[in-house]
Amino acid sequence: MMLSLETRIPSDHGLVAPDVRARLRHRVRRQSDRARIDHRSSDPFELRLSRTVYPHGAYRLSGREPACVSLVRRRTIGRQMTGIVGRDAELDVLRDFVASIAGGASALVLEGEAGVGKTTLWEAGVAEAEAQGFRVLAARPAESETSLSFSGLGDVLDTALEDALAPLPEAQRRALRRAFVLDDDEDAGPPPDPHAVGVAFLNVLRALSEVTPVLIAVDDMQWLDAASSGALVYAARRLRAEQAGALIAHRASLEGSVLEELRRSLADRFTHVEVCPLDIIALQRVVQGHLGTALPRPLLSEVHQVSGGNPFYALEVVRMLGRSGFSVEAGRPLPVPKTLRDLVHGRLLALPPDSRDFLVAAAAHPHPTVAVTEAASGVSRLVGLTPALESGIVEVDEGRIRFTHSLLAAGAYEMADPLRRPEIHARLAKLLVDPESRAWQLAASVGEADEAVAAVLEEVAQRAHARGAPGPAAVLLDRAYELTPRDDSERGLRRAVDAAFLHYESGDALRAEASLRDLIEPLTPGRLRARALMVLARIRTYDAPADATDLFLQVVEEAEGDLETLAAAHEGVASCLFWLMERLDEAEHHAEVAFALARELGSEALAADALITQLGAEALLGRPTAPATADETFGLDATALGYRVLDQPLVGLSEYWIWTDAHERSRAMLVEGLRRAQELGDESSRPYLLFLLGQVESMLGELEGALVRAHEGQEAAEQSGQPFFAAYNLALQGLAQAQLGRPDQARDAVRRALELTRERGGQVWLVASSALGHLELA
After folding, report:
1. pLDDT at residue 31 above 60?
2. DSSP designation for 381
3. Which pTM value belongs to this model?
4. CA nearest to 533, candidates 506, 567, 559
5. Around 454, how many Cα atoms within 13 Å sit in the side-chain half-sphere?
6. Parallel, antiparallel, or unpaired for β 244-251 and 106-112?
């Protein structure tokens, strides 16, 4: 994992200038010779300047689709629409978008290259929403924040937090408070489900939008941290009629998975605007408005050509020419560097060395304040800050330093002496209060193995996980593994294995599995390999339970007295065999061993898991001990209320009561399970609970009700990324449709269920086979 602490703060240069502007029509695309700028590189400086000209008024907008979300503000950051140059078409779209939010959840994405003016339009959209009485929830993330957990969401809900927390159920309120580290006991209890914060955020938006329309505004979306992005996407998928909108600015060429999720979720209420370079007339007004210089036409034409109509590049070109004292001569090309990097470096080199050093400290921290930057750099504000302010490289707002463009921050950091950067990061680590921010500064301060720093990263990763942010926790552990001394192989492997499982928990199963297989390959049989195999087996459990069974059995052979791993492996074997409905006597035996070991270890959660599986196996085998096991299981239910609902005894009990024909009792328990899932924000448990409830209703002859539950379960599974549970609910749809005498719909549902099921056996095949049997007998 490569550390990157370059600050990326949104541009504040405005495409501002006088009055008259040519009217551009929405969705009209003028064909012309466009400046050929290579967008393939993720390096912001690798945008090579061309000599091809954009014609007057060139721009491009692309089709309307959906999106949504909403948020709050600390201060007015909007830029009035009047006075913005060359953007009439885009401003019309922004006005229409803000007005459309009254009709339901919507999203608009402004996308373009660095420096093209996205932030100016974003600010104009914010100003329009504020003028229309919206509650605006805004975040302007920097690249150095991408590894922090819930940093962006914290900005979004900053001033709305009291209003946001009040209407939430206690479990969701607790999830948000833990996410934002508002309680001293943040590590108490099990980590919340990764979706819990998303559920809470969704309900916050719904509550706020009932009072007034809400706009979630995120500039430089590409730097929004993964945990915040997950909450945003979760809410976007579920907002429909609410008066909530999302306005997003995103740099072209960088990955935008969140944007694709918004596009899919909001369909025809998603609008994408490509922000293109300016024509020559608009560019002249920008230069004059910012620098007070009216360029002669020949020079203006040259500047427009080399900048490709990009306003930030053009302003940097003119500044460079001013510093060099260049005069235009016929036939003489402009002495412009080949890359934007050189332009930015040239502007920064004009500052005194102490000022550049001051800016390195500001760029190394996502939220630099004047006081912290002084302390980290050792340069006073008078010497360090004043020249940068006078040069327009930074501005100060209520004590916080903001680069006027993220490329200037990147340039300041990049130009620093490689030996100086670690010194500044080490100083920042001592100055900052937030543990996660301190940990990343420590990580950037060392270039070789350091157990002390690795231990801090591991501790902070555990705290991030406890707050419901497995993705950031995984990245912290990745870095901890990199910094673990090679002679401490056991500790390093544990960190790497834990990181892999957290990547899985955060939704990146492919990365997790690939990492584990790389770790396992060179290991010899034994305790270390058993731990890695254990996590790989857990990852494979739902997708390939037969493979997972073999892996768990391998762990049992290799655990070598590691009782915790051994207990979990026995429970894993039992669960997989039970899910497959195979070798139930073996499942019963492994569950009994796991339960005994869990009790010896004092692990109530593992004991409950083992007992649930034991109960299922005993019931299906017709053991006379099943009722007593059910009573013992029921006694453990109260100890697991804070855990994911599928890990609570009530699920196994509800299945047991289905098999023993206590259908009403099972239904009551499943309804309680769905209530707990809603309160906890546990979306991952809902698909299977709905499947079981549908099964109960089918057995009671309530076929239409069963069909409704199965459709709800399928939708919940698809929204939470669980195709195996979608298969369960599709199979149930097939059974209900067959019983209702609808053969075509039944066969289609069964076909889709079996396509999602990689292995034969288990409940999907049983229910699907029952549906096909009904059709044959009809």
Report:
1. no
2. H
3. 0.70
4. 559
5. 22
6. parallel
Band the pLDDT of 256: cuts 50, 70, 90: low
**520: CB partners within 8 A, 6+ apart:** 529, 532, 533, 536
Q: Is the dihedral of CA 204, 206, 212, 217 positive or negative?
A: positive
C-alpha 72 chain-centroid distance: 20
CA distance 234 to 216: 14
**Distance from C-alpha of 306 to C-alpha of 315, rounded to nearest angstrom:** 11
Return d(Cα 423, Cα 447) in angstroms, integer: 11
In this structure, are residues 366 and 142 in contact, taking their beta carbons and an 8 Å threshold? yes
Rg (CA), the chain: 29
* Cα distance between residue 528 and residue 353, in whole Å: 51
Query: Would the pLDDT of 598 be above 50?
Result: yes
Residue 716 has pLDDT above 80, yes or no: yes
pLDDT band at 652 (very low <50, low <70, confident <90, very high): confident
State the DSSP H helix or E strand holding residue 430, giving kind and residue range, or none if neither.
helix 420-431
Phi-psi region of 561 (alpha: psi -120 to 50; beta: other; left: phi over 0): left
Question: Do the beta carbons of residue 103 and residue 115 sit within 8 Å?
Answer: no
Residues 326 and 247: their CA atoms lie apart, in Å, by: 41
DSSP string, 61-113: EEEE------B--SS-----STTB-S-HHHHHHHHHHHHHGGGS-EEEEEEE-
Nearest to 201 by CA among 189, 214, 188: 214
Helix, strand or coil, per DSSP, at residue 276? coil
Interacting residues of 162 by C-beta distance below 8 A, sequence separation 6+? none
Which residues touch 451 (CB under 8 Å, ≥6 apart)? 483, 484, 485, 488
Nearest C-alpha neighbor of 227 from the set 181, 159, 166:
181
Backbone angles phi, psi at 550, to 5 degrees: -60, -40
Question: What is the chain's length?
Answer: 778
Give the helix ranges, DSSP H, for 446-583: 451-466, 470-483, 489-505, 509-520, 527-540, 545-558, 563-580
What pLDDT was estimated at residue 233? Answer: 86
Structure tokens at 267: 């369909």
Task: Answer whether 13's CB lies under 8 Å from 278's CB.
Answer: no
Provide DSSP, 680-696.
HT-TTTHHHHHHHHHHH
What whole-number percentage of the chain has pLDDT above 70? 84
For 594, residues 6+ apart whose C-beta sits below 8 A from its C-beta are: 567, 568, 570, 571, 574, 606, 609, 610, 613
Read off the tokens for 271: 């609008």
Tokens found for residue 681? 């924000």
DSSP 8-state symbol, 508: -
Give the Cα separation of 215 and 199 in Å (integer).
18
Taking alpha carbons only, the member of 419, 478, 422, 423 closest to residue 454 is: 478
pLDDT at 398: 85
Q: How far apart are CA 464 and CA 479, in angstroms?
A: 14
Running DSSP on this structure, what letter comes out for residue 378? Answer: T
Structure tokens at 468: 């419901």
pLDDT digits (tens, 9 = 90+) for 67-89: 322 222 233 445 566 678 889 89
